[in-house]
Amino acid sequence: MIIDCHGHYTTAPPALAAWRDRQIAGLADPALAPSRAGLRIGDDELRETIEANQLRLMDERGIDLTVFSPRASFMAHHIGDFRTSAEWAAICNELCHRVSLLYPERFVPAAMLPQSPGADPATCIPELVRCVEEYGAVAVNLNPDPSGGHWTAPPLTDRSWYPVYEKMAEYGIPAMIHVSTSVNPAFHTTGAHYLNADTTAFMQLVQGDLFADFPDLRLVIPHGGGAVPYHWGRFRGLAMALGKPPLEEHVLGNVFFDTCVYHQPGADLLFDVLPARNILFASEMVGAVRDIDPCSGHHFDDTRRYTEAAGLSAADLAAVQEHNARAVYPRLDALLKRQGR
């Protein structure tokens, strides 16, 4: 199998964005606030958006299954308060669940959390529980910066995050560390904020000792790890200066990276620097980079091409494309086994 661990519902029906606009308007004027019942999206609308986009590309590129979560830039945790985020997360998670019901062998849900600046992360737990127990979510997306580019949250190693990690450990689910929209004009959302966050999250984990408290916790850092592979020597040296064990012992038993790197030299570097067991295939297709690369004639996000041209052994390629995801996402592995795969 080829498992894409990083997919978002970026093509959701327009009614979803329209409802969100009304929700935001309702923050200033409660009379404008929409009701949950006012959002009506039929199964045929879901099929149309999926079959013309993600599913079509999956079939063209030979991808068997995608771990599917709400659109990252739409999480926008900085808007409103916890109640705003809770209502929005519930709606978005339900749509991804419905997609997984329509295409049970092609999409498996992962949940966004109802985070909000300054809110106790433990407030996210009811939605996490609901998504795992009712929707069969195999992972969550965890935003290390709910403020939208101002970085007011404590580092991921802070004990305030521990209730979320405890629940993740209980369910055996990983988190993808994924920020949302930047409202800081200094940081472009997908070109700077996303990659900055990947790099920042990794350094926070190097500085701390989170995995001493949670030895089975699994975190996926997307977009190839931001600057991490390119500056691996810097991180090794910083770990030494901080008195930490070698990175292979300190973080690589718990931290994984995806292949959302959109050119061959970058993908080659990722595979050359990091152990194959720490890399999971992903594309984030129909995401931030949707165009065709004029240098190759193929879509930038057709990451299968880069992975298969990187010179991996057959065993390492199979690990990256399937087996690592099954190990990092044990609930996904269990589901696949129930399906006979």
TrEMBL record:
Cross-referenced Pfam families: Amidohydro_2
SUPFAM superfamilies reported in the protein's UniProt record: Metallo-dependent hydrolases
InterPro entries: ACMSD, Amidohydro-rel, Metal_Hydrolase
Protein name as annotated: Amidohydrolase family protein
Matches recorded under PANTHER family: 2-AMINO-3-CARBOXYLMUCONATE-6-SEMIALDEHYDE DECARBOXYLASE, ISO-OROTATE DECARBOXYLASE (EUROFUNG)
Gene3D superfamilies: Metal-dependent hydrolases
Domain annotation Amidohydrolase-related: ranges: 3-330
Record keywords, A-Z: Lyase
Record carries keyword Ribonucleoprotein: no
